[in-house]
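Title: Comparing notes on inverse folding

I've been comparing how different people in this forum approach sequence design from structure. To keep things fair, I'm posting one structure and asking everyone to reply with a full sequence. Here's the target:
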């Protein structure tokens, strides 16, 4: 095969271009700090980095979701604390009203204070987060969930529980709907209620009541009836006598796994209804207290009737306080879950970044050595070509 001068030049230029391309690539690596800038330079490492980047991006998104959920739950937690403070103030007010020595004017002032607390509770139930979403509205976050009515309130939200994914297999509820928080509150002691009949003529006050034996208590409706000022009997819903005995003021009457404490002097024929607790709105309980105080302020009221009504309100407020505490405990547990998951996510992200760095980060010492070698090779090639081009047979003749 004949090697012409033109072919030699073409081959030389091709080699020079390849050397210069290699030098340019090495210089780019040094300036960027990356071992490769295209997948073609290291397909295996590039594939691993791409996979790691996807997992890292997903993990970071979970972290962002967790932070948003944390913010929402912190808002709810703070709101629940404020609700409990308002309810405690309302309870203190009810105890003051139940002292038995207040004038109608004083009771009217307490009714006004109770109404103001009711407005505070309404504002808290309609709390919005930093994005303007109503936190107790379920999925219907753009509309205020609660509005007051003559008997309590209406609820315009839904029963949805908004959830956010904070890990590969981990979701967390970021908002409790208002129906659950404010409307599903048990009346009475949480198991049953005790109420005096409207026609009672004695002076009996309803005291503490509770379930003494969960195994023996089957719920149901009962009536405590006084057959005389000193004797009573307890009837079930079929009017069968389940308990009877002598009445002693302040001594608990026990029946069917439950007990009820009554004090005062009954009249023959006085009755007290014992019925299973039902769900009642917080705002209905507050409105009932406001109505009781307003009626007492408006005219003469039986102290026994007033006391029993206020005592029933206090029981309902206690149930509302317990409800808020239970929901707040759930919020706290979810915040702990987020904190734990974020710690796991942060650790994972650190490991992923280290793995990516090991694959993609440039070994500067090696790269600089390679660049020096490439420059030396290029310089030598240029010198060799120059010398070669100067050779001729005529120099030897």
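Reply #1:
Here's my take.
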């Amino acid at each position: 095969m004949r090697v012409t001068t033109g072919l030699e030049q073409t081959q030389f230029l091709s080699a020079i271009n390849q050397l210069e391309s290699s030098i340019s690539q090495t210089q780019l690596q040094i300036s960027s700090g990356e071992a490769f800038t295209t997948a073609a330079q290291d397909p295996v490492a590039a594939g691993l980095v791409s996979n790691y980047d996807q997992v890292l991006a997903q993990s970071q998104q979970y972290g962002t979701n967790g932070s948003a959920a944390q913010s929402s739950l912190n808002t709810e937690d703070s709101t629940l604390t404020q609700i409990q403070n308002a309810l405690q103030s309302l309870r203190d007010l009810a105890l003051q009203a139940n002292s038995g020595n207040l004038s109608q004017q004083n009771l009217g002032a307490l009714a006004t204070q109770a109404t103001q607390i009711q407005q505070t509770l309404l504002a808290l139930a309609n709390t919005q987060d930093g994005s303007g979403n109503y936190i107790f509205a379920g999925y219907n976050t753009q509309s205020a969930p609660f509005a007051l009515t003559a008997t309590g309130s209406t609820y315009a939200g839904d029963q949805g529980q908004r959830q956010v994914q904070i890990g590969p297999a981990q979701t967390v509820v970021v908002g409790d709907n208002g129906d659950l928080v404010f409307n599903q509150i048990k009346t009475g002691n949480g198991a049953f209620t005790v109420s005096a009949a409207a026609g009672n003529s004695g002076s009996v006050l309803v005291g503490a009541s509770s379930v003494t034996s969960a195994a023996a208590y089957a719920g149901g409706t009962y009536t405590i009836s006084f057959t005389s000022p000193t004797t009573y009997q307890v009837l079930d819903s079929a009017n069968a006598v389940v308990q009877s005995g002598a009445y002693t003021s302040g001594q608990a009457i026990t029946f069917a796994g439950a007990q009820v404490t009554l004090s005062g002097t009954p009249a023959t024929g006085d009755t007290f209804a014992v019925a299973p607790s039902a769900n009642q709105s917080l705002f209905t309980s507050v409105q009932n207290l406001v109505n009781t105080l307003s009626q007492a302020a408006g005219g003469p009221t039986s102290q026994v009737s007033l006391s029993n009504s206020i005592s029933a309100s206090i029981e309902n407020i206690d149930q509302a306080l317990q409800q808020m505490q239970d929901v707040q405990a759930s919020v706290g547990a979810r915040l702990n879950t987020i904190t734990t998951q974020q710690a796991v996510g942060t650790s994972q992200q650190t490991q992923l970044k280290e793995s990516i760095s090991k694959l993609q980060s440039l070994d500067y010492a090696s790269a600089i050595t390679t660049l020096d070698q490439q420059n030396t090779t290029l310089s030598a090639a240029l010198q060799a070509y120059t010398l070669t081009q100067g050779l001729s047979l005529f120099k030897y003749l």
